[in-house]
Automatic annotation (TrEMBL):
The keyword Cell membrane does not apply. This is Cytosine-specific methyltransferase. It comes from Rosenbergiella australiborealis. Keywords: Methyltransferase, Restriction system, S-adenosyl-L-methionine, Transferase. Gene3D superfamilies: DNA Methylase, subunit A, domain 2, Vaccinia Virus protein VP39. It catalyses: a 2'-deoxycytidine in DNA + S-adenosyl-L-methionine = a 5-methyl-2'-deoxycytidine in DNA + S-adenosyl-L-homocysteine + H(+). Belongs to the class I-like SAM-binding methyltransferase superfamily. C5-methyltransferase family. It is an enzyme of class 2 (transferase).
Amino acid sequence: MKSVELFSGIGGFRIACDELGIETIWANDIDKNASKVYMNNYPDTNYINGDINECLSAIPKHDLLTGGFPCQPFSSAGKKLGVNDVRGTLFATIIEIIKEKEPKFFVLENVKRLLSMDNGSHFSIILSSLSSIGYFIEWRMLNAIDFGLPQNRERVIIIGWKNNPSSDNKPRMLPEGDLININKKNITDINDFSKWINFSDHRLKFKNWGCAYEGKFIDLNINTFSMAKPAKKLFEVLEEHPNESFFFNEDTKERIKNSVEVNRYFNGVEIRYNQKGGARMGYSIFGINGVAPTLTSSTSRHYERYEIEGNYRRLTNIEYARIQGFPDMHCQYVSVYDQYTLFGNAVPPALVKWAINQLINNERN
Ligand SMILES: C[S@@+](CC[C@H](N)C(=O)[O-])C[C@H]1O[C@@H](n2cnc3c(N)ncnc32)[C@H](O)[C@@H]1O
């Protein structure tokens, strides 16, 4: 099995594919730092650093397409037309590549917000576009917490497999353990295409699991995750002796004077102090007995304060690697500052490894 990794960043999908014995034969990203990291870790890969739209003809035929694509709004014209007017977006480029290369499978990743943007019309366009080019589509919201990582990070994973007479169009990201927790009527509806809803009738945001096929979809809110491993806690992945540059004791002690002690957990994240009177997360001080809040590429997040053994510091670049499930030194080729951004943008390999495995190993033809 051969894969192509679009918007490859530092290779979250790459690590997952390596672990599953899938060979990554081509990868691309426009970002200089991401490319430095990718090319140093995987010097033998056929890799292009540049705009994907400039190198479409270089993409080889492949079996599996992967990509965590940037989330761009569609034009209002697209919304009015309902389907398929995604012109000029990177999502349109993905559609073009899938149409041209016809991979057997694809796995796309995006932020949770995708399900609710523009009251669901954004996701409706994505699903109807993908399902109108010959693929059966399934999506599910997954959380890094359920894959042994100490982070609350919810991501929408969209998988697709080529629809042909012999393919099995049954959900692949609903393992037996989860089916037990879904009521019988819902299971009947999933299996009865006449019960599925036309995209033109979609209402508001999409639920956290669903399937789409030939202009119709069905979705459900599924709260269990049968593969769940107990979440690791932040204290389990901390470095023992971080460099002094990560600490900000004195000014934090001053800020605490104007903060209120909170001491509660929110989405698994331990919040020790908050800025007085405000709900803003900006000056929160986190504890280490829960998980980390979603790491992001935004600089302010890199400077979040954690109370650790009576000191106050930010997380280190190596801790960012561990929280996302990458090897400690994966991004050593760029500055510490740039590592935060790259890790914050990445997909946790363990999460997509599960999705890819469900997709390709559930094939029964
Ligand atoms: C959400 S990140 C994907 C991260 C990746 N999955 C990982 O594990 O590191 C999106 C990536 O798309 C890249 N990108 C944005 N516009 C692009 C373009 N026009 N051509 C190629 N890559 C692009 C960004 O540089 C960024 O690395």
